[in-house]
């Protein structure tokens, strides 16, 4: 059994009410692993060059010739759509997304994502009637293996003490969620795309850099104080953070993001957004 599947089984026991959702995401992770095993690392950077870039505040993949295999991207996109469709409240939307990709200039689309800090670009779907949330769920989860492959190869060259920026030190994308470490309470973020983890400054918005404590706060429910959503009143975004000290265990941030979906509902009701996700009218 793979490590991630063992962790999913642990979380399914901890959160039996989310068993179906965790099983679904286990299938997603399996598909990502299947594609990951077909990908070869493209980027090689010497330790000296990596150190120079990190100290200069430059993420490692910047300006590198990093190309995503179009056929493998199409393969995982189709497989993910197949498992998403039966769960969707409007399955035809999944079909429409696949049709859209057949007309899309995929190399250009993927190139823009490599150069951007986020995959959530409204101009990609324009004024179409596509379900933006489903579209970007499929895109993000299709891309994770390609970026993770490079991150797994390069992460040992990142000196964490030299990088306290809001973007990932490997691919330059935004964080997905965070945690306070079990052993010392240090604050770590996880990249939304390559899954790299890096340390960050407490009481600072990881999206806009706001550090005014009067416009930063956190929300939680009394039944689960181990998980909080830290919100910023400047950019109106939020990030979910798991406290390993309060949980008394190390966490898997991919799975933590899933089991804290109730926090998403809580903060969305109050006008905050986790990502710059375009909304359908």
Q: What is the strand and helix layout of this fold?
A:
Layout: H1 3-14, H2 19-36, H3 47-55, H4 70-84, H5 91-103, H6 106-115, H7 132-154, E1 175-180, E2 187-191, E3 197-199, E4 216-221, E5 224-232, E6 238-243, H8 244-247, H9 253-259, H10 261-269
Parallel strand pairs: 1-6
Antiparallel strand pairs: 1-2, 2-3, 4-5, 5-6
Distance between the termini: 44 Å
Shape: globular
Strand content: 5-15%
- Domain count, please report it: 2
**Number of helical regions:** 10
CA-based gyration radius: 19 Å
- What's the main sheet like? 6 strands, mixed
Give the low-pLDDT segments: 277-281
* Quaternary structure state of the chains depicted: single chain
Which strands sit side by side, in order, in the main sheet?
3-2-1-6-5-4
**Mean of residue pLDDT values:** 91
Task: Walk me through the structure.
This protein has 281 residues and is of the alpha+beta class. The protein has 2 domains: 38-156, no CATH class; 174-269, no CATH class. Helices cover 43% and strands 12% of the residues. It contains 10 helices and 6 strands. It has helices at 3-14, 19-36, 47-55, 70-84, 91-103, 106-115, 132-154, 244-247, 253-259, 261-269, and strands at 175-180, 187-191, 197-199, 216-221, 224-232, 238-243. It has a 6-stranded mixed beta sheet. The longest helix has 23 residues, at 132-154. It is globular and about 45 Å long. It starts with a helix and ends in a 12-residue tail after the last helix.
Tag the structure with descriptive keywords:
10 helices, 6-stranded mixed beta sheet, disordered C terminus, 2 domains, 43% helix, 281 residues, alpha+beta, globular
């Amino acid at each position: 059994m793979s490590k991630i599947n063992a962790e999913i089984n642990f979380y399914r026991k901890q959160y039996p009410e989310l068993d179906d959702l965790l099983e679904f995401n286990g299938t997603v992770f399996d598909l990502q692993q299947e594609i990951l095993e077909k990908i070869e690392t493209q980027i090689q950077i010497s330790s000296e060059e990596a150190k120079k870039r990190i100290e200069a505040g430059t993420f490692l993949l910047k300006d590198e010739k990093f190309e995503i295999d179009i056929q493998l991207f199409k393969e995982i996109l189709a497989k993910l759509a197949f498992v998403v469709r039966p769960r969707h409240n409007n399955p035809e939307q999944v079909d429409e997304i696949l049709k859209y990709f057949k007309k899309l200039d995929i190399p250009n689309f993927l190139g823009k994502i490599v150069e951007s800090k986020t995959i959530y670009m409204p101009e990609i779907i324009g004024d179409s009637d596509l379900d933006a949330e489903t579209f970007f769920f499929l895109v993000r989860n299709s891309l994770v293996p390609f970026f993770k492959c490079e991150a797994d190869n390069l992460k040992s060259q990142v000196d964490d003490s030299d990088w306290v920026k809001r973007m990932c030190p490997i691919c330059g994308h935004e964080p997905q969620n965070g945690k306070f470490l079990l052993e010392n309470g240090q604050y770590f973020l996880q990249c939304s795309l390559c899954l790299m983890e890096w340390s960050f400054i407490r009481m600072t918005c990881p999206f806009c850099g706001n550090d005014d404590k009067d416009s930063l706060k956190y929300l939680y429910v009394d039944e689960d104080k181990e998980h909080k959503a830290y919100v910023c009143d400047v950019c109106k975004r939020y990030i979910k953070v798991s406290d390993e000290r309060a949980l008394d265990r190390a966490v898997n941030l991919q799975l933590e993001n899933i089991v804290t979906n109730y926090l998403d509902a809580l903060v969305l009701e109050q006008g905050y957004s986790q990502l710059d996700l375009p909304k359908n009218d």
